[in-house]
Amino acid sequence: MKSAVSLADHLAPDTVNRLERAAEIRHDDALILMRARGHICALYLFGHSAEMCLAAAYFRATGFSPMMVIDRDTRLRAMKQARQLLTDAGEPLMSSDPHPVVGWARFLRWKRSATKLSPQEQQRLEAAIFKAEMVYKHWRPELRYKTTHVQAEQLAEVLKASTWILEQRGRL
């Protein structure tokens, strides 16, 4: 029997469009899992959906066209820069977490603040940080290794926040 070709060997590189499309798919998958009572898996995918949307929004704000390749080194350089920048409270914009959903939201606001923003845009960016914090309150990539019970309220908060981020992705 012939062995299947490795899936990893033919993945397309990330782009703003592909990250956003993957975020939509993960969000839809999470909704299916949520209905099937796969709450921890749903929460896990909602979190990744939010992270992908915020990273895509950051790269769009830096001038990446929809199909410009975002390779691993580019992403790591951006994350390194965000970890060197400090908030008004003196903490890094982005934590050392390998999946910094809040960090992407903060870094996006920092990047967008370099231009003149309308009050609505400023408010939307603040809301994105708040929603990212809500996701991170309950979500960690380590969930894939856990068997813990997810309470309905926890799932509802992550669903609401990740849905808002997904719906706003082109406006962030």
Give structural notes.
With 172 residues, this protein is mostly helical. It contains six helices and no strands. It has helices spanning 16-35, 39-61, 72-84, 101-112, 119-138, 152-168. The mean pLDDT is 95.
List keywords for this structure.
mainly alpha; 172 residues; globular
In short:
61% of the residues lie in helices and 0% in strands.
- Class from secondary-structure proportions: mainly alpha
Number of strands: 0
Radius of gyration: 17 Å
Q: Major β-sheet, in short?
A: none
Instruction: Quote the beta fraction.
Output: under 5%
Q: Spell the H/E element sequence.
A: HHHHHH
| Coarse shape | globular
Helix count from the secondary structure assignment: 6
Uncertain stretches: none
Mean pLDDT: 95
Q: State the helicity in percent bands.
A: 55-70%
How far apart are the first and last residues' alpha carbons, in Å? 49 Å
